[in-house]
Automatic annotation (TrEMBL):
Enzyme class: transferase
UniProt KW keywords: Membrane, Transmembrane, Transmembrane helix
Domain GGDEF positions: 572-709
EC number: 2.7.7.65
Cofactor entry: Mg(2+)
GO BP term (any one): negative regulation of bacterial-type flagellum-dependent cell motility
Pfam families for the chain: GGDEF (PF00990)
Membrane-spanning parts: 84-105, 125-143, 164-188
Cross-referenced Gene3D superfamilies: 3.30.70.270, PAS domain
Protein name in the entry: diguanylate cyclase
Coiled coil: none
Amino acid sequence: MFSLLLGVVALIINCYPIPFFANVQFILGNTLTVISSILFGPWYALLTSILASTGLVIVWDSFHVYIIFGLEALFLGFCRRRDIYALYGSVIFWLVFGMPAFYLLGNLFFDLPNNHLPFVTLKQAINSMIYTSIASLLVLSIPKLWRFKGRIKDKQRRSLSKQVTYFITLMITLSLLLSALLFNFYFLERQQQLVKVNQNETVRHIAYAGETYLENHIKVIENAAYLFTITNDSPTSSQAFLSNLHRNYPSFISMLMTNEKGNFIALSPLSKFQNPDEFKLNNNVKDRDYFIESFYNLRVYVSSVFVGRGFGNDAIVAMSAPYFDKTDHTKALGIIEGSLDLNYFDKIDYDFEGMRNQSIVLTDEKNNIIYASNQLNLKVMTPFHYALYKGRYQTTLDLININNTDSSTPEYIYAKSELSNGWKLYIVEPFTPLLKIAENQMLNSFAMLLVALLLTFYISNKISQLLSIPLEMIANQFSQLAQSSTKHQLLDDNAPREVYSLYETLLASKQQLIDHQLELENIVAIRTEELETANTKLKELVDRDPLTALYNRRYAEHKFIETREFCLRSEQAITVAVVDLDFFKAINDTYGHLAGDECLRQVASVLKQHFKRDIDIISRYGGEEFMLILPMSNALNIEHHLNEFRLKLNQILISIPNGSQQLTLTCSIGAIIANANYHHDLDRWIKIADDNLYQAKAQGRNRTILTIISPETES
């Protein structure tokens, strides 16, 4: 039952694992499984483990935990049967069986990348050492656990040296584990903060650079249109003006000027239009938004990203502005347009790619990809499909999946910024390197922990020997002092001062202890005799009425149970009688309570004289009432026996204290006689006796009324 209780509590605790980093969570419910293995052995531990693992199945939705933790519970249970400490057993299990089995099951059943598995496996080994250490300390620190009735006992009594070594190893191991985990936790928190700050700075910088890049070229188009408006002298000057402008701003893939009908009047570079057939097909742009918006709405226009027509198949942004008649600035004569090269972001990407392992994704207001770093393998001018990660990985970073949006494992850490024109910039970097840092930290901690564990074991063993060896020598020596005394120096100079002082004190006080022991034995014998006498008197006071020295009602009720069981075995009848003194209140009122007390004492004396069998129970029932329990009664003569008492009582003269008067007493008796199996409750017997007593009172008192309960009457 206790192992079931431990399992239920462990199930509840395991439903709330402690997040550490990524998909790593620490569980503490298995602490109770280890406690069960220490106390009860392998099979009860397996039962506790099944319940505890159910909590993990609810949270993790993975049934492998039944296998791993079930095997761990069995292994620790069998180690306990062989007197191997739980912590040592846990280290052996995870190094030899647990970690390889966990890794194998992870490859078969986990939805995790292979490079994540070592980290998770290593975490589980460390986690097991934590809850095993906690369980061992709980068993040692809670007396009710290591004194638990029914627990497995050691086959051989452990030496002090081994116990001290294990206790020190246990405490240092747990301290190191918790310290290492705390350090790793804060280290990873700091790493995440640095990554987040770095990404946010990067995305702000690139977003600013991108917006500046766009705004500068918008200004170029706007200023060029204005300059051409005020300097336009002849139609032939447009080509020279445009070619010179393009040479100064080569970020434009191509530039063009049109007349009011949308026909080209100038192009740059001219090499793109050397094919007459292509030029003939694509020499008018009046259907393009950048012409319509600029020419008819008389404003600077920046288009959405699109694929150029006639000037290549690159994704471009068209920037256009109208130029006007020199004498009438409200009359547009055409537009100047530049197709901006978005590969500028490739130059920025190159600056960051080498040193920060970061990639860029730039989308337009329609979520189409404008630019993407080469390592992402994303196609330009296609929708940007992604999924913000909301899985089980615990981190303060923002995570995103791009290549596999349905994956339960995050692919990238990202930061996002939106440009003023509605474009969105994403800075992404793989999540795996950060996980690798955490894995290396965990691996280093585990390696250091194993080394520290071995050193702790060795040092604590030596320390414990400094204490245990001298004590063992003292114990061996004092076990021989009854035959001989110490003639030589027992402990050398390496013995601790406290141990040597203990040895000298024991040696000097041995005889004093023996003398004192003899004296104490004599005192104890006297005190024991006095205590037995006092207990006898106390028992008499508890069970007897102080006035009449008869048994009291409590004693009679308790004794009735034993008497009835005795009569049941011998199939004998029992008589229960209630004796009530007639007109006793008048005696108290007339002669005083001292006279009444004397009457009660005399009645008690007559009762003890008349009902004198050892098995008869005579008690004062209360006030002037007495109760008789008479086992092994004869139904033929019990009424005569009771009447004899009644007559004998009436013949006695009772002297009044402090007076010369004498008085006599009469009594009324109500009784029942029945087989012992009539009823187990004394109150049922007394009820009939009381009813008979009231009937005797009603018929004139000083009489006996008896009810005989026969088997026929009972039925």
